């Protein structure tokens, strides 16, 4: 089925626009027309249309004609104008809906000349147009029409798309003015979006936030939709490859829908907070995209799907139900999302022919929503980066403040130590003087000592017996108390220092790589290998490794058990050291095992006794 149409201009029965209209730009009203069942109309030429008296164009009285039926539909549109309007000024005829496969424009002077003015659309490369503008335009002030009273404009449509029959007449100066302004504003729009993308990329490289990836995807989707709606892709990107315009037109709306859904769910944290709602939103959006891309043709649009608005309304409801929890986030996101939602509602209403308006805010409401949302989302991420930077700076200031305090403490200690060294040097000087006097006294006493040596020799045997008796008493714990032992090892640190001296008396050697260079390690008196970075505790490889009670008491327990040759109960050790009996039993068992192994290595228990309890330390 093919269609024949006529346009009724300004409601005049003779289809004339009168000269007295003073406006610089005229919007030609579109009236709905009756459809005719004419076969093979696609093969009719302009000459056939004009000369065939059986072809009649029928006008109607309803506004807003939208062509939605079939694919590769061919139809003709006829408009008649009073030529007096064009004799005084130069006018441009404009077809704002440039989403057509092919449109051919002709000017006809009734009874005389037929002029072919333009042939354009997605079936042709952009450079083949005579008048290179994003919309399809041609002049109405041709020299061959100067003497005519009326002129007819014929438009032949051959298009697989949904088309809105809507036209504009503009004086040349007015057309240039608003056309330049329109290109300027569109360039500003895409420039802002590109700057937002660059900002998002820089922020992503800085803070590695996953939501920034979705924001960048959303901004690219916004550019794709804008290039499709404005038809700038066919002019600047794909002017030699018309087929790519079909691809962008087909997929850009679906990409934009998905980018909005993914960005909103990620930004609002819906997946983490309510996974079921997240699955519902993503599921419906995926079904919409799948159904549209697989089953719908170019003549359809995604806005007309009955379920299209559901994911966006769910997100909108989620924002309001969680606005108290996400107050700081929503204040940036809500404004842009409301504009997007308004634009989506307008697009949906327009796709159902419920609300069609040529108002620029209605036509570009969706594009403005994309731009505003991208701007506010980028601002929110920028503020987030600012907050992170401020927190980092604050942490650095705290660290610097702490370092200054530590530096001051160190300086005070150095100063205190310096004063102490000075006072000790004075003491040493005094002691040296005393030593000089003592040396003199010693020389005097040397002679007396020589005289006493003989006497001492006779008493030596008796003294030796007394010493053996004293050693035996101390070994058997007859005289040594915990207080006396504590005098030798007053603190845990003194025990660690003693342990360090015994363990590494022959020099440090790394247990892993045998490297001998070391630095101060982590832990009490630990050493860290400079080659492999292995940190070795001072207790590693000793009887005190993995000790779970104070090492000072462990030293004393080794001394007691060794002195008693293991013949002491855990109960007695518990009372002496004020420790749990089970702990004393476990460690005394470990000491006895060490004594047994050491006796076997040395050959006898007597040999171990001669070396003393210190021989048990290194295992």
From TrEMBL:
Provide the alphabetized UniProt keywords: Coiled coil, Membrane, Transmembrane, Transmembrane helix
Note the superkingdom of the native organism. Answer: Bacteria
Q: Which residues form the 7TM-DISM receptor extracellular domain?
A: 42-165, 182-380
Give the coiled coil ranges: 439-473
Residue ranges of the TM segments: 183-205, 212-228, 248-270, 277-295, 301-320, 332-349, 361-379
Q: Which residues form the Transposase zinc-ribbon domain?
A: 490-534
Query: What's the protein called, per UniProt?
Result: 7TM-DISM receptor extracellular domain-containing protein
């Amino acid at each position: 089925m093919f269609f024949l149409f006529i346009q009724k201009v300004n409601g005049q029965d003779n289809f004339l626009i009168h000269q007295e209209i003073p406006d610089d730009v005229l919007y030609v009203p579109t009236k709905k027309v009756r459809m005719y069942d004419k076969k093979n109309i696609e093969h009719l030429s302009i000459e056939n249309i004009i000369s065939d008296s059986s072809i009649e164009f029928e006008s109607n009285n309803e506004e807003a004609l939208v062509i939605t039926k079939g694919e590769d539909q061919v139809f003709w549109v006829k408009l008649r104008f009073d030529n007096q309007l064009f004799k005084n000024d130069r006018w441009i005829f404009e077809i704002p809906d440039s989403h057509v496969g092919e449109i051919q424009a002709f000017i006809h002077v009734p009874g005389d000349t037929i002029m072919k003015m333009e042939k354009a659309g997605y079936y042709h490369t952009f450079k083949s147009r005579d008048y290179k503008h994003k919309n399809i335009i041609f002049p109405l002030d041709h020299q061959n029409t100067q003497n005519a009273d009326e002129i007819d404009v014929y438009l032949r449509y051959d298009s697989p798309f949904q088309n809105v029959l809507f036209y504009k007449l503009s004086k040349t100066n007015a057309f240039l003015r608003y056309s330049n302004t329109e290109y300027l504003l569109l360039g500003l729009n895409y420039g802002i979006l590109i700057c937002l993308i660059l900002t998002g990329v820089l922020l992503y490289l800085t803070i590695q936030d996953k939501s920034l990836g979705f924001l960048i995807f959303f901004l690219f989707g916004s550019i794709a939709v804008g290039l499709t709606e404005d038809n700038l892709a066919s002019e600047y990107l794909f002017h030699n490859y018309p087929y790519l315009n079909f691809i962008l037109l087909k997929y850009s709306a679906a990409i934009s829908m998905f980018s909005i859904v993914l960005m909103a769910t990620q930004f609002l944290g819906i997946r983490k907070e309510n996974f079921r709602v997240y699955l519902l939103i993503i599921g419906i959006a995926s079904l919409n995209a799948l159904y549209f891309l697989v089953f719908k043709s170019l003549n359809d649009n995604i806005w007309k799907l009955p379920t299209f608005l559901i994911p966006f309304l769910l997100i909108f409801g989620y924002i309001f139900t969680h606005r108290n929890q996400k107050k700081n986030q929503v204040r940036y996101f809500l404004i842009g999302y409301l504009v997007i939602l308004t634009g989506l509602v307008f697009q949906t209403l327009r796709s159902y022919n419920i609300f069609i308006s040529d108002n620029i805010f209605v036509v570009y409401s969706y594009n403005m929503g994309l731009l505003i949302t991208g701007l506010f989302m980028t601002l929110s991420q920028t503020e987030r980066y600012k907050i992170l930077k401020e927190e980092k700076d604050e942490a650095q200031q705290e660290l610097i403040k702490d370092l200054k305090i530590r530096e001051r403490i160190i300086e005070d200690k150095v100063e205190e130590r310096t004063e102490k060294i000075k006072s000790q040097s004075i003491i040493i000087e005094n002691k040296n003087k005393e030593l000089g006097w003592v040396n003199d006294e010693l020389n005097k006493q040397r002679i007396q000592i020589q005289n006493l040596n003989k006497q001492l020799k006779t008493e030596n045997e008796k003294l030796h017996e007394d010493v053996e008796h004293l050693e035996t008493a101390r070994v058997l714990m007859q005289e040594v108390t915990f207080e006396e032992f504590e005098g030798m090892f007053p603190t845990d640190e003194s025990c660690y220092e003693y342990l360090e001296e015994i363990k590494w008396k022959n020099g440090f050697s790394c247990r892993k790589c045998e490297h001998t260079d070391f630095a101060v390690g982590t832990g009490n008196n630990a050493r860290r290998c400079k080659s492999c970075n292995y940190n070795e505790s001072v207790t590693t490889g000793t009887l005190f490794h993995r000790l779970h009670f104070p090492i000072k008491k462990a030293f004393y327990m080794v001394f007691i058990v060794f002195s008693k040759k293991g013949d002491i109960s855990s109960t007695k050790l518990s009372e002496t050291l004020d420790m749990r009996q089970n702990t004393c039993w476990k460690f005394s068992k470990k000491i006895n095992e060490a004594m047994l192994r050491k006796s076997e290595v040395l050959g006898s228990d007597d040999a171990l006794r001669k070396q003393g309890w210190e021989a048990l330390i290194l295992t």
